[in-house]
């Protein structure tokens, strides 16, 4: 956890980024051998036998799995109070075009939530569909602000020392002269 200093007028404050809880899955090849990224290329991986691997999979509960499919049909969803949307660490926002749904959510002053995958890998989001400023929006989150704050508060807060930038004059003796 990192704390940064911020002076707002006469108020000396510190701030720390709210981060989502990471999903930790082991990267493997098609045979289940652990794979790591090769430093020379982003598209190539090396397994534990030092063989080049073209495609990466993940190990989930002892099973080798490929990436998720893009969500295109939602059967299970939940109506929630619209204010719950603003407690999310939203990572993506989308404009949604569906007048009947927009009218329903305006009348009920609710939002919808459901599980969602954009099909780019192994990330599962909580999707929130709601109206805002006369538009229907969908936001994707993997964690809530309350959970992120709770994780920060559980960690020991370390006081930061006052650190100043070095000046050119102070470094003059360390600079190589031709």
Number of strands: 13
Globular, elongated, flat, extended or rod-shaped: what is the shape? flat
Estimated structural class? mainly beta
In DSSP terms (H or I, runs of 4 or more residues), the helix count works out at 3
Q: How do the helices and strands follow one another from N- to C-terminus?
A: EEEEEEEEEEHEEEHH
First-residue to last-residue Cα separation: 42 Å
Let me know the largest β-sheet.
5 strands, antiparallel
Indicate the proportion of strand residues. Answer: 35-45%
Oligomeric state of shown chains: single chain
Chain-averaged pLDDT: 79
What integer value in Å does the Rg equal? 24 Å
Domain count: the total is 2
Written description of the protein model:
The protein has 3 helices and 13 strands; from the N terminus they run E-E-E-E-E-E-E-E-E-E-H-E-E-E-H-H. It has 2 domains: 1-66, no CATH class; 68-163, no CATH class. It is mainly beta and 178 residues long. The model is unreliable at 174-178 (pLDDT under 50). The chain is 13% helix and 37% strand. The strands form 4 sheets. It has a 5-stranded antiparallel beta sheet. A 3-stranded antiparallel beta sheet has the order 3-7-8, with no helix packed on it. The chain has a 3-stranded antiparallel beta sheet with strand order 4-5-6, with no helix packed on it. The protein has helices at 99-108, 145-154, 168-171, and strands spanning 4-8, 11-15, 26-28, 35-37, 45-47, 52-53, 57-60, 63-65, 78-81, 88-96, 110-116, 125-132, 135-144. Strand 11 and strand 12 form a beta hairpin.
């Amino acid at each position: 956890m990192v704390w940064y200093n911020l002076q707002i007028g006469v108020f000396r404050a510190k701030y720390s980024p709210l981060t989502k809880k990471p999903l930790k899955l082991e990267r493997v090849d098609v045979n289940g051998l652990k794979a790591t990224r090769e430093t020379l290329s982003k598209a190539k991986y090396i397994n534990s036998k030092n063989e080049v691997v073209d495609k990466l999979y993940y190990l989930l509960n002892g099973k080798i799995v490929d990436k998720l499919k893009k969500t295109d049909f939602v059967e299970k969803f939940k109506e929630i109070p619209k204010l719950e949307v603003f407690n999310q660490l939203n990572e993506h926002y989308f404009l949604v075009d569906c007048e009947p749904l927009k009218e329903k959510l305006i009348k009920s002053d609710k939002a919808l939530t459901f599980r969602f995958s954009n099909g780019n890998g192994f990330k599962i989001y909580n999707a929130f569909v709601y109206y805002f400023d006369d538009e229907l929006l969908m936001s994707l989150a993997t964690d809530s602000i309350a959970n992120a704050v709770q994780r920060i508060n559980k960690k020991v807060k370390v006081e930061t020392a006052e650190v100043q930038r070095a000046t050119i004059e102070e470094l003059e003796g360390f600079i190589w002269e031709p």
